[in-house]
## 1
Amino acid sequence: MRATVVDHVGIAVKSIEGALKFWEGTLGVMCTGVEEVAEQKVKTAFLPIKDTEIELLEPTADDSPVAKFIEKKGEGIHHLAIRVDDLDKALEKLKAQGVRLIDEKPRKGAGGARIAFLHPAATGGILLELSER
Ligand code: ZN
């Protein structure tokens, strides 16, 4: 497995529109697109910063995993994503090493990426996403 870059940092927000007032208005970090990931019941906004991105996540339903996260912990950093060059190979290797995975197989993420999450119990408390694009 080869990690190539910190792909993005996912931040759970109640409202993308509200969060953009800070990110765009105050910081000048501009949003380049918003996409809905129906499977995850979230709307995501991308704010590139050089080679990486801030990903704002707004739940679209009360039973969305991100809604539950906000309910429990409040708004804030939700996950960290690392880009890998071969996600299938990475997952195979992690499985063989006994690493606890949330996704045994890649699934579709925002921006056309293939993604898989590792369990926080295996990563020192971080919800870690591997991303291939
Ligand atoms: Zn993500």
Note: The longest helix spans residues 16-26.
## 2
Amino acid sequence: MYLGVDYYPEHWPKEMMDEDILGIKKMHSNIVRIGEFAWHLMEPKEGNYDFSFFDEAIEKLKNQDINVMFGTPTATFPAWLAKKYPTILSEDEDGTVRSFGGRRQYCYNSSVYREFSARITENLVKHYENEQAIIAWQIDNEIGHEGSDMCYCKTCHEEFHLFLENKYENIDTLNREYGTIFWGQTYNHFNEVPMPTKTITTHNPSLKLDWARFRSFSLNRFTKEQTDIVRKYKGEHQFVTTNIAGGFFSKWFDHEETVKDMDFVSYDNYPVWGGLTEPIPPAEIAMTHDFNRGLLNKNYWIVEELMGAQGHDIIGYLPRPNQAKMWSYQAFAHGCTDMLYFRWRGMTKGAEQYCYGIVGHDNNYGRRYKEVQNVFSDIRNYEEVLKSEIKSDIAVLYDYENIWSWNFQQQSSGFDFKNELMRLYTPFYKLNTHIDVVPVSRDFSDYKVLLVPALQIIDEALAERFRLFAENGGTVIFTFRTGIKDHNNNIYLKQALPGFVKDITGVEIHEIEALSAEQIVPVVGSGQFEGVRSTCSVWRDIITPVTAETLFTYEDPFYSEAALTKNSYGKGTVYYVGGGIEEDVLTEIAKTIVENQQVDHIRSEDGLEVYNRVIDKKVYYFLMNHTAETKSFDSTTLQPYESKIVCRN
Ligand code: GAL
């Protein structure tokens, strides 16, 4: 089991290396991550490769039995490269060239950048191929993060034309699929197709979706080139990974594709960040772990775990004593097997002087140091538990093309894909169930429950998979706007909504209304929910039940139709949630579902997360108190923000 820190030995006077490595060792670490921003140090001038600084650091680390994860340095290129080849710099939508000075301001399609990146990575990996201390390579750093997945430069435009030509072969096909007859946008040649940059009103929806696919293709091609080089030259004992940043659903690349050639996924877990006055909700942090575990369907690493306050120009919330430790336990519960904290020391210079490390600027080995030391010494006792496989009965399904479609055409000012996903995830999270967050392309036939938020793009083949799932006894919850679109981002012609899943949902939708996040329509229950009152925001589908039973209707003098329905299909049950219905209603539905489907769940006090892991018939309960109050679970008491693992036979 690897536990350690992100260490930047190049940031400090060389004389401090011994002292730092000793401090890292005494914290019970056995790994550091190094190198991911040090391209200039390794290639100070074009073609002059020099790894001597890291050779020395690695020797010192080895003397203390500390292993190394080495980051390929392509996230920060040297100034000489940008000066000599300015075309490597990416461009904003309005044509502003991103200047040298930040990070990741390169264009994934620049052949010059791809060539120089290939060379530095090849030289670096070859140099350390036989280095036993290096046990893993990290590709780039948080690829595509901070807006770096978008670029509108000339090279991108030309590459986009090639991408389209490859896809459609014939411009008439593109015209037909896009429906360019609308507003007279018919193209004679691929090279006439614009990028969706600023214009009057808005661009064609099919064009926008193809642009998103092209962005994803560009980033993933770069990642694959880098991964292939590392794989070709690395030692057999070395793994390959990349660190996934948060905010997955607002990114323009398909993450599953990004990691598909990796040995394991690494995630950077930041429950708070600059400007946030409180952490993101516990359910959302949990979901990010389930998402990362879902990428390769196996347990994963965390290579940046927060311990201190963080921020670039604005700093955020300071984790309360033991709170960051509790977030680490939450990560371990959800499938993290190995963990590195960001970062060893707070840097006094440079853009991240406000990213507080384990050791303070003042050299204080205080609360943060002790908390990490504590995590490391405790968690080693549970190595086998952490490595055990997590089985889930529930899956939340997402699809990047669908998310991109939403991100381009929000339809309601209150819509946010992540919020809609959380609307379904949270009630089941609060029942302490195991949930996988996985792409819709994954085989989902073995789950008992599928949560399907706002999945607009559904074709016949996917509908058939849902049909089989329900027929065989599964429960599905669909939400509003399900099945309205095809893969070109176009609305189905002559199809009553929700399109291909109309029969299994047992409803039809002929009228819709976009609400805002604040705009509220009351809803009232019937049948099992007789007299229950709640509200709906963001959106409402005005539902006409065909075979479905109505559970809630809108309280509205004009459109008092169904808001939430339940249909029996085969041996299964299919719910349709017509709008942004409040958590109280969905919680009741979740309770019914876990009982009926016999999904393993655990009742706990509000704010106390319980996640069980089973190994050799022993049950390990990871208990995480996310609140500032004392909580208890059976006979175990947890102080504010405390976390514990208790074992029952
Ligand atoms: C991460 C990033 C690190 C550092 C850190 C600051 O997103 O990978 O390099 O910037 O945030 O908290």
Note: The chain has three domains: 3-155+220-386, 394-596, 608-648.
